[in-house]
Amino acid sequence: MLTLSFRLSKLRFEFNIGFAVLVLAVCAVMLRAGYWQLDRAAEKIRMQQQIEEAQIQPVLHIFGDLPAPESLRYRQIRITGYYRNEHQFLLDNKVRSDSAGAARVGYHVITPFVTDAGTLLVDRGWVALGMDRNRLPEVAVDTGERNITGTVTLPERGFHLGAIDSDWNWPRLIQFVDYELLGHRLDSRIYPATIVLAAGSEDAYEYDWRPTQAGPQKHYSYATQWFLMCGAMVVLFIWFSARRIET
Questions:
Q1: Residue 89: which residues within 8 A CB-CB, separation 6 or more?
Q2: Closest of 102, 43, 51 to residue 75, by C-alpha
C-alpha cells in the first residue's frame, strides 16, 4: 500500500496515496457543483433584472419583421394577424387552483397566429380537463383579422420522455412545446417564442400569468451545501490520517 507520511509538531500524518487521490477527485466534483450553483444564481439575478426592465417598457407595436426572441423576452407586444382555428394545440397537464385553493387539471390552449412576420404560437390561457379525458374541450376561435396584445415568453422544454404528441387529431394534445416539432405539425416555420395573451383579451381563457422567476436563494443554499460537504470531507480525511506522537 503506497503511503505518504510526515511529521508536524507532535502529530504524524500518514496518507494513503490512492485514497487521497479519490478524496481530491470527489472534492473537485463538489467544488465544481458549488460554483455551477453560483453561476446559476447570477443567471437568476440577471433574469430578474431583465423581467423588471421589460415590465416597465411600453407595449411594443410590431409592424415588420420580428426581432430576435431574446430581445423581446417578457416584453408586451401588439401585432396584427389571424388565428389558425383548424390547427390548435392543447398543452397537457396544466394545474390551476380555484378560488378555494383546490387544484384543477386542464390544458393551456396554444393557437397558431399568422402574421406578416411569420407564424406565432399564442397561449390563450387555461381550460379545464372535463369529466372525460377522451373528449377534448371546444376551443374554436374566429379566424378574422385582429390585433392581439400579449407577453413574449421563451418556455424551456426541459427534460421529457416520450413523443410530443400521440395522434393526428385536431386540436392536437401535446406534452411539451418544441417549436421545430410543432412547426412540422403545422407545415410552417414558427417564431421560437410564445405570446401569452393579455388577460381580458378577446379569445382569452382563464389566466393569471406573471413572470414567476425563482430567485437566487435556492442556488446559494445548494452552493453552500456543496462547499460545506467538501470542507467536511477534507477535515475528516485529515483527522483520520493524523496520529499523535507519544513522548
A1: 109, 110, 111, 121, 171, 172, 173, 174, 182, 185
A2: 51
- Per-residue pLDDT 10s for the chain (247 aa) are 566 555 666 666 677 777 788 888 999 999 999 999 999 888 878 877 777 776 778 888 988 888 888 888 888 889 999 999 999 999 888 887 766 667 788 889 999 999 988 899 999 988 888 777 778 888 889 899 999 999 988 876 555 666 787 777 888 888 888 888 888 888 888 999 999 998 888 888 887 666 665 678 888 899 999 999 999 988 887 777 756 444 4
Q: How far is 141 from 88, CA to CA, in rounded Å? A: 10
Please indicate, yes or no, whether the overall pTM of this predicted structure exceeds 0.70: no
Query: What cell does 247 get?
Result: 513522548
Q: Quote the CA–CA distance of 228 and 90 in Å, as a whole number.
A: 45
Using alpha carbons, select from 196, 99, 92, 87 the residue that is nearest to residue 150. 196
Q: How far is CA 222 from CA 49, 63, 89, 185, 246, in A?
A: 22, 45, 37, 40, 42
Q: For residue 9, what is the DSSP state?
A: T
Single out the residue of 173, 188, 65, 195 nearest to residue 119, CA to CA. Answer: 188
Provide DSSP, 102-145.
Answer: -EEEEEEEEEEEEETTEEEEEEEEEEE--S-TTSPPP-----S-
- Tell me phi and psi for residue 35, to 5 degrees: -70, -30
Q: How far is residue 23's CA from residue 235's CA, in Å, rounded to a whole number?
A: 11
SS3 153: strand
